[in-house]
Amino acid sequence: SLWHSPELLSDIQDGYSVSGHLLVCFSSGYFIHDTLDIIFNHQSRSSWEYLVHHAMAISAFVSLIVTGRFLVAAVLLLLVEVSNIFLTVRMLLKMSNVPSPALYEANRYINLAMYFAFRLAPQAYLTWYFLRYVELQGQGAFLTANLLLLDAMILMYFSRLLRSDFFPSLRKGSAGRDVDGEKFLID
């Protein structure tokens, strides 16, 4: 969507493209499906963070779909899915105990770069944009609150990733147990 219509970036509040609209609709459907899957498979307790994230995404995306405003912001936020590729590769490498530490090592650094480029940078830019230019009432206030909560979640996930892949000695609490429990970023 952004590749074919780069002019969208000049109007985050009111920019519109059919492909962007369809992307947000499809993504909303994915979040709804994944939420129902977590609930129906009795994974709510272990996946409560995902449920919170999905509820925030669904509510924000539905408001965007209904009003037609801030569609470009949603498309920018969906850039995080690019970094999910490398997080998934990381998880699969850990689960499969691949005997090639070089492959995991390479993915570790690529994953970190992608996390910065496709999670932290777009999130920071949108947070700055919303705090500076968006009127904090109505939909603007709702979306700004959502962004700030997402900021906290993304930074929490980032700290887990850093502790797991770059500072493993910081993973253990004072009682010798894993600070983050059974989170996939730590496992």
UniProtKB/TrEMBL annotation:
Give the record's GO biological process terms.
membrane assembly; phospholipid homeostasis; plasma membrane organization; regulation of membrane lipid distribution
Locate the transmembrane regions by residue number: 72-93, 113-131, 143-162
Keywords, sorted A to Z = Membrane, Transmembrane, Transmembrane helix
**Gene Ontology cellular component list:** plasma membrane
Domain of life (superkingdom): Eukaryota
What does the record say about its membrane topology? Multi-pass membrane protein
Identify the residues that the record assigns to the TLC domain, covering every copy: 1-170
The compartments listed are: Membrane
Q: Does the keyword rRNA-binding apply?
A: no
Read off the Pfam families from this record.
TRAM_LAG1_CLN8
Name of the protein this chain belongs to: TLCD1 protein
